[in-house]
Amino acid sequence: MFRIFLPRRHRRTRDPRIPPYHIMTAGLLLVTLSAGFTGAAGQSPFNHVNSDESQSPFSHVSSADMDSIFFAYDNPDTPGCAVGVTHFGEPLFTKGYGIANLDHGIPIRPDSRFMVASVSKQVAAAALLMLEQQGLLDLDHDLRELLPELPGSDRPITARQLMHHTSGLRDIYQLLALADTGLDNTTTPDKALDMIRRQHRFNADPGDEYGYNNTGYELIAVLVERLTGMSLDAYSRKHFFDPIGMTSTHWHDDTGKVVPNRVISYRPRSFGPGRFYRDNMDRVGPRGLFTTIEDFIRWEANFVENRSNLDRFAEKMTRPGSTRNRNSIAYASGLRLERYKTLRTVGHAGSYMGFRTQYTRFPETGLAIMVFCNQSDINPAVYSRQIADLFLRDTFAGRFAAYPGRYVNKHLGTGFDVVLKEGDLYLERIPQVPGFDGSGGMGPEGAPRGDDIGNQEDASGRYIIRDSRGIADREDFVIDRVPAFFERESRRMIWRSNDRFRVDDWDLRFERGGDSIRRMNLQAPGTGEIVFEVEQ
């Protein structure tokens, strides 16, 4: 049995039971197979990339492209990842790779429930904003009246500071580790509060500095309960999970709770993966949210079409915090505000006891990527970037269109080509022979032109380069059949900021003249900047 969802423009009315973000834009035909996908790694109910090449902005992406990114986990005996990709909140691709439970051979699926670690923080922050909307909390009021357990300070500690990591409080997880309690032992919220209360010094004065820590989000869960009489789970369900339709999401504040489709986390060992997450912590806020790719797609869609009880959801959630000395910091409501290849990103990573998660949204393009993994050595941020490179290839190519060209330094007698391939920039040294420049002109020591050099392959298969006298009497001039000096080594340029890139241990800084690039400044270890001019 299957259901077919047609694009909005072909539908006269929308069934109110079907959320609008289940309907694809760009004329894609959506097919949801209730029986699941017939692959080794799980089902793919929203596997719709490349289903309408004539209209989709992502027609160059295929399911095979996605499978190639996660091929290492597409087998029945290893942990892996669940993946979701959406466009303006509507699903393009979901699939599971690897195994959710190795004991029973249960595959990872888009409806598998992961503990998403610090990706949880944005949901706790949303609850805090909901308290403000209800008039139950002033985000800038001193919290000591509500939380007398807070350590003393001449300055107020506010809920806004808790949300933005500017409270100066010490990290609760590090305190537990120093007290030899650690993360494996059950520590009740009351014990955690007592640990916070006994701290007589701060990492920084409240409001002065950004310093990522989990303590603030522990306290957000306490605030919700004290102000509403409801647990964070119940409050989130009322104002977010139920209105949005996140039926498979909960805050895991009861270690005895049965969790259908639950994912177990692992860590690599010499004889195979071993269990990691022990499910013996009932503190939530900084982490502890269980959800699925399918549910988190609904959460992501709420940034596009708000169905929650929080007014102006997207605006409030992405409003950056500040410190006493900075008007804006790169952190909002449980969300990091960053850039990737010049594009703005909103998202968060998570890492906790074998669970590794990454959520990234590109507001300018509408693309969002979710990768939830269940082994401690998997880096979902890397895979998220690879997915972004794949889907946004043409966008990145447009952003980098000014950089390609040949850059030369006549004093060194060398240069580089900057080449644009598949939305990425690469640095390639101009081909050259020792003593000669790459353009075929005079080298730095008056060497003959490169195209005047006689060369041939000898009987042993070696490639011989002869000097201007036709003599190959130096060992350096006898090389392999494929001459290394003629190879164009291509090294990927990593965008850092504005017109700055990184290539291995080199820093590249481009200078503009009007709308065009004039030169490339290369700084290698111990050299200072070396200028390479654009070849005219």
Task: From the structure above, extract its key features.
536 residues; alpha+beta; 6-stranded antiparallel β-sheet; 11 helices
If you had to describe this structure to a student in words, what would you say it looks like?
This protein is α+β, with helices and mostly antiparallel strands. The chain has 11 helices and 27 strands. The protein has helices at 63-69, 121-133, 159-164, 172-178, 189-197, 215-228, 232-244, 293-301, 313-317, 380-391, 393-399, and strands spanning 2-5, 30-33, 81-87, 90-97, 99-101, 106-107, 114-115, 250-251, 266-267, 274-275, 289-291, 336-340, 343-352, 355-362, 367-373, 405-409, 414-421, 424-429, 455-457, 463-465, 478-479, 490-492, 494-497, 500-503, 506-513, 516-524, 528-534. Strands 22-18-17-16-27-26-25-24-23 form a 9-stranded antiparallel beta sheet. The protein starts with a strand and ends with a strand. The model is unreliable at 1-45 and 433-486 (pLDDT under 50).
